[in-house]
Amino acid sequence: MRHHAFRATRALVVAIVVTTGIAACGDAPASVAPATPRATPLITPDPHLGDPTTADAVFQALARAGLRVSPNNADAGAADGPLVKRINATLLGWPFTVSQFKTSASLTKLTDWGEVGEPVQGDPPIAIAGLNILVEWGPTTGELPPQPDAAKLTALRDLALNLDMLLSPLRARAVVAVPGAGEVAQASAAPETTPEP
Predict the structure, then answer these.
(1) What is the CA radius of gyration of the chain?
(2) Which member of 50, 76, 82, 171 lies 3.0 to 4.6 Å from 106 by CB, making a disulfide possible if both were Cys?
(3) What span, in angstroms and rounded, lies between the C-alpha atoms of 95 and 140?
(4) How far is CA 92 from the centre of its chain?
(5) Mind listing the pLDDT tens digit for each residue in 153-195?
């Protein structure tokens, strides 16, 4: 009887071991390779500045964009006037200013170029307005505003591209076409001549 009890216990232990082994190996979920993580979309920051913006924000953005603008000084406008701040600088040997006005509306009143036509004596050869910022480039002395040379035309393209990203829509009044500027009062780069008969 003792021998029979030993065999029953042994059979029970074997049955438990076999059952446990089958359960462990049987219907276990298959291991799944981790999925390739999806790339997180990068959000490109909008470089367009809010309205109103500051002359400092525009000047710093132009410097970060690689325009070689050398600051000279800055002055503040009158407390009761529309001008808030003007940064005076130099770009390729020409005077370069970034002027901040209190509002876009106050700048628009001062730069109503629709009927004025091309720049005249005392005007800079290039003036670009966007939001509450006015950028002027070139000398204001001489009989007529000078034409930009090839290097300045290249810089104007870069300047206009960057200003368009920061301040669009742009308006311009210049002696040459300003890329990206709408509502433009501009002179052609070379005046047309009519041959005599």
Answers:
(1) 36
(2) 82
(3) 9
(4) 23
(5) 999 999 999 999 999 999 999 999 998 886 444 443 333 334 4
Dig out the tokens for 177 from the structure. 């076409």
C-beta neighbour count of 97 within 10 angstroms: 20
* Token pair of 126 as six digits: 């290039």
Which token pair is 196?
């005599």
Q: What is the pTM of this model?
A: 0.71
Distances (CA, A) of 87 to 6, 11, 68, 95, 97: 102, 97, 15, 11, 5
| CA atoms of 175 and 196, how far apart (whole Å) | 26
How many whole angstroms separate alpha carbon 95 and alpha carbon 60?
17
**Which positions ≥6 away from 45 have C-beta within 8 Å?**
none
C-alpha to C-alpha distance for 144 and 146, rounded to whole angstroms: 6
Please tell me the distance from the alpha carbon of residue 178 to that of residue 170, in angstroms, as a whole number.
Answer: 9
Model confidence pLDDT, tens digit, residues 30-84: 555 666 667 666 666 667 888 899 999 999 999 999 999 999 999 998 889 999 9
| Strand boundaries in 119-180, DSSP class E | 126-130, 133-137, 170-174
Q: Where are the domains of the chain?
A: 55-186
